[in-house]
Queue: 4 jobs
Job 1
Amino acid sequence: MGEVLDALPGAKRALFARYHLGGCQSCAFSNEETIAQLCARSENIPVEEMIAHLLESHAHDQAMLVSPAEAHRRFTAGEGRLIDIRTREEFEAVAIPGAEFFTQDLKQQLFAGDPTAALFLIDHTGRNVLDMVAWFRGHQLREAYGVAGGIDAWSREIDPKLPRYRVELE
């Protein structure tokens, strides 16, 4: 499953939404477990069905992403807002000029505003942004998009002066 999650970042969300797998201790799976093993212990879900669902979900996820170049073009043209969903420490250390840090106040402002306004959500590497985009869209902000590759890709492709960094996990 670890390789599946690396290749298809939204797989955990897709498995939970359709099969209620991976969301709690009783339905969790390990990175070492295979899809076949997970299917066998989950009421014998057909492996082909689960793989097809994961691939369909991945295609859907890809439609919720924009490239850093597209987000930059639209953001600088005033066609949307750039919302930074990283931690406050990350935002204070490295921020894209004009990006807004996602706070409770901003959240309330966004949900009270125009539901058709474009929002470009950015995280560190693009690994976690899809869950937040899905959450925004589920709350009627249908023009929310994730920036593929996050601020890491932005610093490579758009603004090389923007420092790249690595988060150390304890």
Job 2
Amino acid sequence: MPSENSFDTITVGARGSILSEAQVWEVHRELLNHHPQIQFQPTWIETTGDKDKKTSLRTLDKTDFFTREVDQLQLQGHFRISIHSAKDLPEPLAPGLKIVALTRGVDSSDVLVYNHELPQNALIATSSLRRQQNLREWKKGFRFADIRGTIQERLAILDSGQIDGVVIAEAALIRLGLMHRRRMSIPGLAAPLQGRLAVIALESDHEMQELFRCIHHEI
């Protein structure tokens, strides 16, 4: 294990959304339970997935759509670790990178957020075919619309009345302090690793691998 005095600050790369920032500080709080002297120095990065609000996620496999720019900067040495939603990681990771910790995480379920009682033919927004199929099996008659954007942007579309409901990960609502939103859990399987956070380091950075072992939880 690295000594307690070997360093005090770790440089961190992550997406620049409010949710991503909350995730970074969640990992930091967990690490402080074991290494109370460690501080994070974050760099917030806009990725391809943040810039491109038009490409449907329905057509994408496990690509680097949400990690590409972060991966590139990390491989160039701009920061020692990066932090992502584990479900957003590409498969495989970019050569040279390695998962050094998967957090225990929070509630992994999907929820349907709505403001008013849903009509039988309610228009529900989701960018996930899996979520859409779970809803079809649960509630007959729903119609579906594709949606992209941050959690706040998706909720704003709901609040504007353009849609009747929107599917969001419960973990996102928890991390953003939005538990007051009216919602119901959706039956069916959620995305693998939803609700958990991944800490990524260079394959060669054994110090980071050892440091973050304390917050890792097996799948």
Job 3
Amino acid sequence: MINFTPFILSFKLSFIVTLILLFIGIPFAYFLANTKSKIKPFLETIVSLPIVLPPSVLGFYLLITLSPNSLIGGFFYKYFNMKLVFSFEGLVIASVIYSFPFMIQPLQAGFESIDKKLIEASYLCGKGKFITLFKVILPNMKNSLLTAIIITFAHTVGEFGVVLMVGGSIPGKTEVASVAIYDYVEIMDYKSAHIYSAIMLLLSFIVLFIVYFINEKNKRRLHDIY
């Protein structure tokens, strides 16, 4: 009998993290795409760090930062009675940081691909920046927006190292699907590990297929137009 709780936790975590990153990512990626500030390379480097850093390194520093003995972790524990390590809330914070570049980079590329004439035309029609963003820019970069959402969601579902270090492996609380596979391997329950791994493999294939299918469809549409 398959225990679906780890998958439910994984999808719950991914859904929350994707929503948070979408809310944060749109204005931040828009700023990166349009700024000419000298600090842009520095910000882009910070954003991309989770891609190149080993998960164990990032997980270690997050574990230290979120612990009750740290400034941030101590603040939440003292004023909200909330322990961020070995908790679902801690998983959300860690996953937001780790999945940040997977939301930002596709959105930034999408913003940079928008024809500036469309934006200027919107401003000439009396539309403000907010209306232009949601009525002109975002509808014309749906492919990038959807790619960012799908990749962020999938990456969070499959994350292992960071969530294991920050959340541990507490059944029903922090034991997501990737951690459950690790636990099954440790106790040599290869049958369950095979089942869980096969489900994760299928989900990963579906996600990547959707992304490439959408990109190819968009390329053909642009080719037909021009």
Job 4
Amino acid sequence: MYQNRIFFIGDIHGQFQWVQAFAARLAACGQAPLDESDWIVLLGDSGLNYWTEPKRARSFKQKFTTLPCNFFIVRGNHEERAENVTKMYPENWNKIMIPSKCNAIQGLVFQELAYPNIYYALDQPSVYYLKGYKTFVIPGAYSADKPYRIANGLEWFASEQLSDAEQAMGRQIAYANQHFDFILSHTCPSEYEPTDLYLPMIDQSTVNKTTEWYLNDINHITKSNFWLFGHYHQFRVYPIHPGDGQKIMMFNDKVLEMDNILKGNYWETI
């Protein structure tokens, strides 16, 4: 019998061992192993499109095919847009509706033909349904270490944040819907920024906060029951502000199942 579970993990930064460790913990805590009906949602900075050249990216992406489950990828800041990679290698990619047999998550995605169990959320604000729950996915963030990356020849992606047009699209979606069961993003609204987790070597006056300010607008335009994000490399369950939904910061060593979130079991990680 299919389980149709959905699990959420924060940034793994190209280290698949975090996913493997989670899969092993499922058995250790007496849960059923992953199957083809299960989904793992990665909340940005997965590393899947950190390298855009197919041969260079192959070894990492192939690791995802070793598990029988599906992956739903929210874009962070340390990876290229799936849409841009599609334009570079159109023969390798499709833009599809997730097949109905994979009915735990529904919506329009990018899929690389060689890795059919990896589904990339669109690169602009978009609506999906996760087990029937209306979910607003808002990708992107600013790389606080951008000057260091550029100076040292590391990968940096010019379109890491949403464009003005994409932000406007997201506001239209928010005004039209007013309420979501879930919002998934890579970074968080500015009101929820964990200032205690700022990198001490980075002058915050040089950090572009456009995405966080934008998400703050979205948080005031629309209401959500749950908002999950990553980016800050720590697991944290926020106190609920009056009139606001539950905010949860995810990282790679803690995994939450959607059913537990819906029950309010925010600390019951795997």
